[in-house]
Amino acid sequence: MSEKISSNPLAQSLIIFVVCAVGILAFFLLIILPSQETSAELDQDIDRLNARIEEQRILTPVFHSLLKRANKEGPSELPSPEKAKLTHGDMNAISTVFQDIAGRHNLKLEEITTDVRSLIQESGYLLMRLRLSGDFFNIRKFLIDMGSIPSLEHIEEINIRSTKISKEFRLKIWLAQE
After folding, report:
1. Does 3.30.70.60 match the CATH number of domain 88-176?
2. pLDDT in tens, 68-88
3. What's the rounded mean pLDDT across residues 121-129?
4. Integer angstrom CA distances of residue 174 from 31, 63, 114
5. pTM of this prediction?
6. Where are the beta strands (DSSP E) in 99-166?
7. Which of 34, 67, 102, 177 is deepest in the core (most CB within 10 A)?
8. How far apart are CA 100 and CA 154, in angstroms?
9. Per-domain boundaries in the chain
10. Each residue of 91-102: b (16+ CB within 10 Å) or e?
């Protein structure tokens, strides 16, 4: 039978054709298709990188303007009084000081809470919580004026919350006490 196939030139041509077709198909499946998939992935990576480059090109002027703003010197006339501790007499008047500062900056002092534990413990510090309401842009001036209080050690926390009418500000501050 093998003599019949090998002696028949048509059968030999058909076998050679099938072998070549299988070879070409294998070459296509093993080499060309994976290369096209890799090429498509690389094209997507290139598109993503080009988009990022364009985004950076657009954002560069914004970055430079923000950098210039950040490098500007702040106001040099911030209050920096000599540090002093609150006496027991001053503790009664400190709420009036906060009300005056709030009034000067069109803020309403809603509540002042003194932490009783910090009064009883002789830690040297008094914890107070303030709740104010008013315009957001006035709180900065209020905080700058608070810096003029000689017994102010630091502001630990500032919470800002929107209400229907205005903004509500909650401050947690520490004052030095005797």
Report:
1. yes
2. 888 876 656 667 778 888 877
3. 84
4. 73, 37, 10
5. 0.55
6. 107-114, 125-134, 152-162
7. 102
8. 19
9. 2-71, 88-176
10. beebeeebeebb
